[in-house]
């Protein structure tokens, strides 16, 4: 039994793995285990055994005990990037050690300052053969104290030779700047487990099963190493291509591109980048021409300890007050999106849990800067540990707040450096306050090495009309300050120092684009009809009454989606009926006589609300969210239905049910609504969002009882492809133009048509100029876009003949990839010019 007891390898606070601010560890992609926030500076053997591997950077060690359990101790996060600095390995691979023997010594302060986090996961990497029966969390543990008790489970043996099928190979060069260490090894294994084929990586005369992170790390693969991915089985080709695409993408760690990158690793709308151009993902459309201006944030150095607690407390109070004053002033101007984000920052600044944690650190002798940074880090760890994109956005907001307070503590202005007018802003990442704090009109466009297309910064850029590219990668750093740039966000490209004739061509295209947009805006209030006279309703997606005012000015013929979460988030109690009704009435008043489709609350495990007692979920996107959550809390549902039904004139507002997976959920909502309406005879349309494959496949059944259908392409795409659009390794492949998604949309349209129901699209594909011709060809008759895109969407629809769109749809449904489909649609739209 001794072999099945794993003891703490370092002194510190033991915590659940979910608190690790890294989805690879928190999501158990490496295996199950426990996290330790270390207070000691030496890693000790957690059991008797043999050292399987110790990373060249000295931060991670794997030991195998006599029972066969393989235990990885990974000191800190992103510590591989330190290249061994601050670490001193005390053993070598192959060494036989006893429980408690020292394995790695590290500089606690130096590593703590340089690393993303010091939290140290202790992982059972072969969790398929050992289950954790008991674990210690939520308390301090000392070296040698019981941390986990393992129970062997019988592994299911598999004879790969009996699977049949082909052998498929892909050869490429490792692009990861730190080689294949723990995090990429886990992600490669998770990718391979989606297939039945056996997948191995071969390097010279060595090979490793990619499902074993330990075996894969044991290859010691470095950047530039040539490898062969070898898959055997009936789905070998797909498995090999998927693993190759993941590795070639760099997984956010590559400094150079692989020699043979897979197509899926590139942005879905991008072919090969022209010479002198860099490729990225479009986060906000448009073209910008200007000179490169780098924004780099040099945060002040933080000391851990301070002698005068009262002085540090006063300094913290002064810094919080200064940042609060800055945020309050900034929140009085700008777009609705900007004001909402800054209001959230103000709420975080006054969060009692956050402030109390910082003050406790100060009282314990820590400096104000260290105390504030540590308090923020504790909160962001749990948010990022969820693996959910919307939690991660809140963590980004907290990081932004940490930066502002640390600058204020150092006596520096939290506002970013001044930028010359017309510049293209370049940064590794950008925080909301940095973009909001720029002088209006000082930036023509934005390009980021990292970042996501649905982040708060992307939302702000779109609201400001700034073209923006994200996920350009490490190659962005090659652009020198002052370089002449063309940022073509529509094409997903940055042209660096183009020739004069090339630049002139881009200027002409930019001028033409601006002229088209001006003409579209001038005709924005006209009714939307296609070139052949078919009526297509052009609505706007809204998140507040202010958005409704903007949408009306831009010619929206109604709202295809009112996101009611803006009323429910970032507060201690749910809004009552009167508050909700007032907001819905304000939206209806801003769009008089035009239909308003209000989506019922889409909240749940992925969107936290303190007043909604939902259990912690390992995968909240597949848990109690949307209509599942509100049906479980009928008081929320009934209050919201009463508020919507109270809007006047009666019937202007329609009700839409989110995250439908079965007809029974629609029936439950209708029963509640009918009971509220009673005998009044009020006629209110009740429709559904089609955002799960289950709803799309059974759209004909749902349409028999729903008054309308509206397709949410964002969630439908990620659920169909089983890819998180915020995961950098796969984000470029999360494309609603994937043939599987388009076939589900086609099935939804045919199911709605069978019962004479309107089928609309309120997801991101409705705001994609390449998506609109395909959607109309598939049978969609209502589009709901971002408010700012309404005029251009109307102008595009007016140029489209539906018979030609139907022919286009039939063609693209037979193509094999989103890349092929986008290329075909791009050729189609160019013929319209």
From TrEMBL:
Short name of any one Pfam family annotated for the protein: PEP-utilizers
Annotated Gene3D superfamilies: Glucose Permease (Domain IIA), HPr-like, Phosphoenolpyruvate-binding domains, Phosphohistidine domain, PtsI, HPr-binding domain
Entry keywords, A to Z: Cytoplasm, Kinase, Magnesium, Metal-binding, Phosphotransferase system, Sugar transport, Transferase, Transport
Domain PTS EIIA type-1: 22-126
EC number in record: 2.7.3.9
Record field: transmembrane: none
Known cofactor(s): Mg(2+)
Domain of life, per lineage: Bacteria
GO molecular function: phosphoenolpyruvate-protein phosphotransferase activity
Enzyme type, top EC level: transferase
Catalysed reactions listed for this entry: L-histidyl-[protein] + phosphoenolpyruvate = N(pros)-phospho-L-histidyl-[protein] + pyruvate
Keyword Chloroplast included in the entry's annotation: no
Domain HPr: start-end pairs: 167-254
Primary site of residence: cytoplasm
Keyword Transferase part of the UniProt annotation: yes
Subcellular location: Cytoplasm
InterPro entries assigned: Dup_hybrid_motif, HPr-like, HPr-like_sf, PEP-util_enz_mobile_dom, PEP-utilizing_PTS_enzyme, PEP_util_C, PEP_util_CS, Phosphohistidine_dom_sf
PANTHER family on file: PHOSPHOENOLPYRUVATE-PROTEIN PHOSPHOTRANSFERASE
NCBIfam families: PTBA, PTS_HPr_family, PTS_I_fam
UniProt family annotation: Belongs to the PEP-utilizing enzyme family.
Name of the protein in its database record: phosphoenolpyruvate--protein phosphotransferase
């Amino acid at each position: 039994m001794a072999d099945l007891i794993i003891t703490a390898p370092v002194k510190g606070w033991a915590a659940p793995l979910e608190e690790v601010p890294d989805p690879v560890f928190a999501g158990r992609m490496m295996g199950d285990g426990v996290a330790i926030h270390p207070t000691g500076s030496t890693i000790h053997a957690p059991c008797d055994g043999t050292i399987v591997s110790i990373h060249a950077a000295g931060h991670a060690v794997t030991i195998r005990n006599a029972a066969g359990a393989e235990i990885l101790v990974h000191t800190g996060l992103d510590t591989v990037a330190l290249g061994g600095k601050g670490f001193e390995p005390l053993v070598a691979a192959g060494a036989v050690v006893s429980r408690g023997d020292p394995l790695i010594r590290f500089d606690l302060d130096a590593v703590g300052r340089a690393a993303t986090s010091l939290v140290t996961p202790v992982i059972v990497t072969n969790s398929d053969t050992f289950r954790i029966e008991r674990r210690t969390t939520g308390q301090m543990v000392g070296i040698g104290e019981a941390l986990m008790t393992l129970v062997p489970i019988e592994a299911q043996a598999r004879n790969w030779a009996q699977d049949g099928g082909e052998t498929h190979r892909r050869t490429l060069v490792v692009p990861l700047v730190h080689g294949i260490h723990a995090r990429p090894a886990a992600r490669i294994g998770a990718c391979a487990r989606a297939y039945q084929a056996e997948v191995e990586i071969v390097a010279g005369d060595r090979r490793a099963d990619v499902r074993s992170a330990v075996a894969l790390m044991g290859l010691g693969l470095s950047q530039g190493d040539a490898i062969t991915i070898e898959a055997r089985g009936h789905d070998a080709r797909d498995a090999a291509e998927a693993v190759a695409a993941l590795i070639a993408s760099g997984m956010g760690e590559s400094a150079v591109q692989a020699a043979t990158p897979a197509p899926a690793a590139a942005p879905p709308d991008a072919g090969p980048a022209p010479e002198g151009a860099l490729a990225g993902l479009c986060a906000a459309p448009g073209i910008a021409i200007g000179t490169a201006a780098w924004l780099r944030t040099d945060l002040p150095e933080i000391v851990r300890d301070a002698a005068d607690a009262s002085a540090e407390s006063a300094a913290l109070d002064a810094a919080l007050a200064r940042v609060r004053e800055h945020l309050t002033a900034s929140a009085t101007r700008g777009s609705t999106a900007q004001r909402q984000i800054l209001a959230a920052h103000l709420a975080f600044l006054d969060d009692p849990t956050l402030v109390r944690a910082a003050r406790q650190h100060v009282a314990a002798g820590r400096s104000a800067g260290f105390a504030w940074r540590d308090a923020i880090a504790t909160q962001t760890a749990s948010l990022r540990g969820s693996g959910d994109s919307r939690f991660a956005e809140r963590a980004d907001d907290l990081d932004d707040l940490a930066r502002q307070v640390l600058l204020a503590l150092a006596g520096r202005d939290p506002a970013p450096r001044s930028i010359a007018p017309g510049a293209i802003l370049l940064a590794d990442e950008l925080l909301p306050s940095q973009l909001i704090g720029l002088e209006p009109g000082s930036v023509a466009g934005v390009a980021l090495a990292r970042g996501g297309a649905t982040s708060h910064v992307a939302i702000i850029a779109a609201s400001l009309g700034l073209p923006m590219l994200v996920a350009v990668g490490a190659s962005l750093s090659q652009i020198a300050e002052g370089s002449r740039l063309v940022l073509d966000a529509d094409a997903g490209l940055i042209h660096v120092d183009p020739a004069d004739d090339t630049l002139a061509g881009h200027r002409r295209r930019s001028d033409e684009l601006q002229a088209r947009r001006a003409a579209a805006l001038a005709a924005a209030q006209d009714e939307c009809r296609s070139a052949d006279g078919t009526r297509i309703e052009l609505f706007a997606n809204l998140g507040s009454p202010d958005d409704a005012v903007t949408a009306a000015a831009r010619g929206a013929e109604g709202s295809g989606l009112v996101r009611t979460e803006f009323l429910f988030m970032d507060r201690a109690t749910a809004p009552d009926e009167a508050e909700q009704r007032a907001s819905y009435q304000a939206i209806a008043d801003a769009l008089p006589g035009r239909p308003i489709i209000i989506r019922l609350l889409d909240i749940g495990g992925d969107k936290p609300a303190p007043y909604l007692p939902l259990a912690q979920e390992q995968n909240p996107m597949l848990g109690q969210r949307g209509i599942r959550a509100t049906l479980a809390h009928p008081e929320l549902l009934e209050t919201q239905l009463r508020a919507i039904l109270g809007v006047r004139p009666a019937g202007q507002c329609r009700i839409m049910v989110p995250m439908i997976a079965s007809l029974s959920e629609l029936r439950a909502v209708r029963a509640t609504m009918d009971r509220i309406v009673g005998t009044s005879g009020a006629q209110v349309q009740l429709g559904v969002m089609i955002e799960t494959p289950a709803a799309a496949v059974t759209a004909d059944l749902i349409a028999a009882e729903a008054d309308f259908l509206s397709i949410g392409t964002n969630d439908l795409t990620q659920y169909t492809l089983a890819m998180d659009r915020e995961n950098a390794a796969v984000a470029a492949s999360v494309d609603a133009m994937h043939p599987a998604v388009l076939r589900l949309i086609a099935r939804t349209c045919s199911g709605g048509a069978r019962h004479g129901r309107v089928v609309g699209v309120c997801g991101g594909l409705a705001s994609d100029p390449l998506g609109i011709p395909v959607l109309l060809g598939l049978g969609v008759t209502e589009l709901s876009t971002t408010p700012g895109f309404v005029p251009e969407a109307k102008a595009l629809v007016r140029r489209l003949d539906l018979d030609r769109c139907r022919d286009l749809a039939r063609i693209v449904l037979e193509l094999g990839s989103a890349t092929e489909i986008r290329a075909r649609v791009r050729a189609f739209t160019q013929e319209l010019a």
